[in-house]
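[09:14] KT: can someone run the structure on this one? pasting the chain below
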Amino acid sequence: MNYFGRIRLGNLRNYFSLYRIMGLFIGYKSYCMYHHNSTEQIISYRTIKEDGSENTLVEDSGLLGDKFRPTFLVLSGLGQTLYGAITRSSPPGYQNEIIKLPDGGQITLQSIIHPNGENKGVVIVVPGITGDGYDNYVVNTVQKSIENGYSTYIINHRGLCNTPLLTPLTYHGGSSFDTKAALEHIKNKHPSQPIYGVGYSLGSNILGNYIGEQGDKCILSGAVLVCCPFRTDVASHKVENEHFGLISKWLAWSCKKVIQKHEEMYPLFIQEHGLELSSLLKDIRTLKDFDDKVTAKQFGYKCVMDYYKQCSLVPKMKNMKVKTLFISALDDPFFGPDVIPHSEFETNENLYLIATSGGGHVGFYDSVLSNDQWHNKPAMRFFNYLHAADRFLI
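[09:31] RB: done, structure tokens below
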């Protein structure tokens, strides 16, 4: 009896020892991932010294606040991305305004006017591929903007935010013409205030295209572009091939749902573009397929690769005259690190780059106890600094 008892006791000790070892290993790996994700971070900027001379390109994370440390419960880039996709926040009470566009189309602006907004400025937000003012990342940016004293406007894409299509055109990664029209409308309403812009994913590419195309005529006084694809053709390759192509399939499904809400416009899509959407959409399975058969054709591109190359931001970055902060995650499952054009940040003094090891695609969650996203901290610091003193040639 004692013999078997000793065996059982010995086995229990072995089990506890094994669990200790496993616990220590998991803890060590978590610490390594946590430490890795919090320390490998690129901050690029240029400053002007008091004597007017220019400092060389430096790396420093202190200026824009603490480094990003992902919550230990969601460490991976894919996990951060999925967590962001399912996270919801209560949206503030927006004022909706439909504005007409030069070609006869229309979009909805969602806004909150800060009672002291005349003293600080306006922050506009351009959402991601099918996003609007009710997505958590948009709500979070709006809330942080209001807390920092800014009025906010969300520039929604055509056909979104329950806004009917009036023309057989939707939007794409380079459709900066709608953003331009919206910004001119907002500037007319706030002529004496600085306007800052935040763009997310596809919206960051659209906003970046606008800044690059406008050059010195850009209405914005500063911008933050989060998880930008930069090289749309390179980004597309990753989206199509990583994670068994599931991201591409999910994005294609989302894009199809947007256009299917406007079935009454299908005859005009046939008339204007020769697109038989009712049958065409049934066969589309991937984002690249959607862009090839729908996006490229309705906007007159030769093919999907012609669309991707012409809408890529990199060729336009040299003409970006507005102080712009890019925030990207190296573990972004959509785009990854290869899309980031580091040389453009070294040659254009108007550009900042923060590239964190972790954060995923529009994730940047450093706690599961809050829906707040870390990237809004440097974004607001950036805008506040630009508002207080124009000391940087970024």
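[09:33] KT: thanks! The beta strands are 41-44, 95-100, 106-112, 122-126, 151-155, 195-200, 222-226, 324-329, 351-356.
[09:34] RB: yep, looked fine to me
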